Amino acid sequence: MSDLQADRLPTISASQALEDLEDKGSNCISTGIKALDKILAPSSVSSQRYGSAVAQSGGIKRGQVTEIWGPPGSGRTALGTQLAANALANDGGVVWIDCFHKTPDSRLSAALENIQLSKEGSAGARASAEEASNGDRFTRYLCFTLPHFLALLSRPSSTTVPAGTSLIVINCVSALINAALPRSHVVKQKTKQPQGPNASTKRMQALQTIISLLNKLAATRNCAVVILSQCATKMQSEHGATLVPALNATVWEQGISTRIVLFRNWSWEGRTPHSVFLAGVQIVDGHTVMDMVDNASAFTVELTGVRDVEYEAGHPMEMAAAAQQKRKIGQTELEVPDSEDEDYGWADEDEASLPAPPPQWQGSEDIILGQDVGRSEDEEEAEEDYHSYDEAEGAEQAEELDSNAE
């Protein structure tokens, strides 16, 4: 009996385990933007129960999958580089996976040197930055094919993902998936298709497999998985063009715990406009944030990394064009020419000869989704299955009519 007692682990109460989990300062990785870290800060259970103010560091949480998406030039790679530099500065390991093009090493070294400069001074900042970015705690992989990427995630070993890794950054995985498994359009065919998964089903299965492997990797290794995703332009007949994530399927969004969108806007200093980067939080811990645009965090991208700045959304001056009202034609004492009442030869049937919306094209960072107006991938897959079922049923009815006629 004494041997069994010696082999057992020491008993820890649930309250003590919860306090130990909350006291871990390295459970979050700072983004370098104070306003964004505050929004991403985990809610303290003890403060909600007992009303005590527990100060916790905010940022990207470990053990979860976070997606950062935005248009080209919105600062995705810069924010991912800043996350990697902050993780290395806190003695954590970083695994960087490039799926579209190789990220320059100089950006990470400059951001890490700036952090070390604020801590150690200029003496050993450069040496410490080069040692961390080129040492054993930083691992880089170039996965330019989907099988290579899946093989890396399927069986992660201690060599591919070293012990002590706190952050895994995957750059442009959306380009890799869209190139290997592009979105398929619904094409009505009269012939009966052979049985088997179609292109849309294969794409859904790949998305579900990848997001499941990423969540498993984040949970088992207690690391933060950050996906730097591209965007797509969805053409909608009622609302025009809309920017959406390049991977917007339901199976993909269910595995995303936190989603951050990056965009750019104008900031005014007096009467002079300046371009500013904005980061809006759409999802935090699986919960949708309603006032994303109002609580957007402003930052700027420099050679030494990202830095938060002050941002005023409103224009200091009144819009002269909006304030002025258009005068009526009677107030101008101008005569309306008779030619304005004519139709210039246009007819209603001329609109039928207009060209169709442009088809979807892959290989660009800004993907155009043209023919499937306002629909997600799940709706397209459901309609494609409906058409396949309808065609099969029609073929059976035709065969039955032919047999009755004979």
List the helices and strands and how they pair.
Blueprint: H1 2-7, H2 14-22, E1 28-29, H3 34-40, H4 45-50, E2 60-61, E3 65-69, H5 76-89, E4 93-98, H6 105-120, H7 125-134, E5 138-142, H8 146-154, E6 165-171, H9 173-180, H10 199-221, E7 224-229, E8 231-236, E9 240-245, H11 250-253, E10 258-269, E11 272-284, E12 287-288, E13 297-302, E14 305-308, H12 320-323, E15 366-369, H13 377-405
Parallel strand pairs: 3-7, 3-10, 4-5, 4-6, 6-7, 8-15
Antiparallel strand pairs: 1-2, 8-9, 10-11, 11-12, 11-13, 13-14
Helix pairs in contact: 5-6, 6-7
Subcellular location: Nucleus
InterPro entries: HR_Repair_Mediator, P-loop_NTPase, RecA_ATP-bd
Organism: Cordyceps militaris (strain CM01)
Task: Give an account of the 3D structure.
The protein has 406 residues and is an alpha/beta fold. It has a domain at 27-42 and 56-117 and 136-183 and 199-310: Rossmann fold. Helices cover 36% and strands 21% of the residues. The protein has helices at residues 2-7, 14-22, 34-40, 45-50, 76-89, 105-120, 125-134, 146-154, 173-180, 199-221, 250-253, 320-323, 377-405, and strands at residues 28-29, 60-61, 65-69, 93-98, 138-142, 165-171, 224-229, 231-236, 240-245, 258-269, 272-284, 287-288, 297-302, 305-308, 366-369. The strands form three sheets. Strands 3, 4, 5, 6, 7, 10, 11, 12, 13 and 14 form a ten-stranded mixed sheet that branches. It has a three-stranded mixed sheet with strand order 9-8-15, with no helix packed on it. A hairpin with a 2-residue loop joins strand 11 (272-284) and strand 12 (287-288). Helix 5 packs across helix 6 (105-120). The longest helix has 29 residues, at 377-405. It starts with a helix and ends with a helix. Mean pLDDT is 76; it is low at 44-55, 315-324, 339-344, 357-366 and 368-374.
